[in-house]
Amino acid sequence: MKDAFKSNCLLCGEQLIYYTETRLLACAVCRHEFHSEASCEQGHFICNSCHSTSANEMIEKICIKSDSRKPVQLAIDLIKAPSISMHGPEHHFLVPAVLLTAFYNQKGDAQQKEKKIKVARQRADNVLGGFCGFYGACGAGVGTGIFISLVTDTTPLSAETWGLSNQMTAESLRCTGALDGPRCCKRDTFMSLKTARKFLKQKMDIMLDIPNTITCNFNEFNKECIEENCPFHAKEIV
Question: Left, alpha or beta for 33 (phi > 0: left; psi -120 to 50: alpha)?
Fold first, then answer.
């Protein structure tokens, strides 16, 4: 993030405004409302809990509580949190977490959602940082395979679903790899989610609310951004 983001708004870098009286503000990350005496000039506010928690802890907590059925929007909201880096292994957990959230919210099964999100975090912890370049397997793409494995209760001894989990990962890697490098965890996250949408519809007759068009507004924070060569590149930052 820019240096200004260390002292100003952690989401947009604008100056903070302090009020003489508290106001009821919605946290830009968890959406819960709190009484606060400060926000930025754009109205952004982040609660103390979201401000200080670790990336994976925050992803787990927010996804378990969320009622969202929109994985991409949930991912974007999470990415805005100060604990999530421009690039980092937290994206390996973020992808299956938002997919599981939308999937089980759509089914109305909060108990399974919480259980599977916790397992996804444990599995994603084994996908190290730099996996894309050092192992030839983008962690965001592997995250889609973790998602399929969990919703189908796949194990190494499973039959048809074993293939589905591997096919999902393979398709995500194929699509992200087709864009070439250098790596971008935001681009790979969006591509993995978009690929999961098509795969779920074709292979499992499941439709998640993932838009055909996704716009990334984080490119100014990525010095290796491939810009117009990225299908999610925003010509103007909004």
Answer: beta
pLDDT digits (tens, 9 = 90+) for 34-66: 999 889 888 888 887 777 678 999 899 999 999
Distance, in Å, from the CA atom of 26 to the CA atom of 39, rounded to the nearest integer, reads 10
Look at residue 225 and give its three-state secondary structure. coil
How far from 198 is each of 69, 75, 94, 202, 230, CA to CA, in Å? 16, 18, 19, 6, 19
pTM for the full model?
A: 0.82
Contact status, residue 171 vs residue 142, Cβ threshold 8 Å? no
186-209 pLDDT per residue, tens = 999 999 999 999 999 999 999 999
Q: What is the token pair recorded at 179?
A: 């864009």
- The pair of structure tokens assigned to 38 is 């400060």
107 C-beta neighbours (distance < 10 Å), count: 12
Name 73's Cβ contacts closer than 8 Å, sequence gap at least 6. none
Residue pair 96/146 in contact by the 8 Å Cβ criterion: yes
Count the alpha carbons within 13 Å of 75 in the hemisphere toward its beta carbon.
Answer: 34
Taking the C-alpha atoms of residue 80 and residue 71, their distance in angstroms, rounded to an integer, is 14
